[in-house]
Amino acid sequence: MKEYMQSLPDGWTIYLWMVAAAGILIGAAFLLRWGFKNNQFDEDIKYVVFDDDDVDKMSDEDFKKYKEVKKKQEKLREDVLRKRAEQKLEKQNEKR
Question: What would the DSSP string read from start to end of 37-93?
Fold first, then answer.
């Protein structure tokens, strides 16, 4: 292995680094796409950690926003669960 590394021409390591950088960029692009597709970049995510016992820790405006975000998140969850159930049903029907 040492002889093979010695026999390579000068400057070959830059190509190795370029391949590694391309792999990292492609991986980052796929992860960003997944994040946007699955609503991971929601600015209102900070309100999801609150619950009804945290009223004294929030201003009236924050509590109102918390209620809106909670309602939106519950609706989104129901939609996702409904879609998953429909997909599962479709797969079962395809097997028959």
Answer: HTTTT-GGGGGGG--GGGGGGS-HHHHHHHHHHHHHHHHHHHHHHHHHHHHHHHHHH
- Per-residue pLDDT band for 78 (boundaries 50, 70, 90) equals very high
Residue 51 has a pLDDT of 77
Contacts of 63 (CB under 8 A, 6+ apart): 55
Task: Judge if 49 and 72 occupy the same domain.
Answer: yes
- For residues 22 and 53, which has the higher predicted lDDT (pLDDT)? 22
Into how many domains does the chain fold? 2
Assess if residue 2 is contained within a domain: no
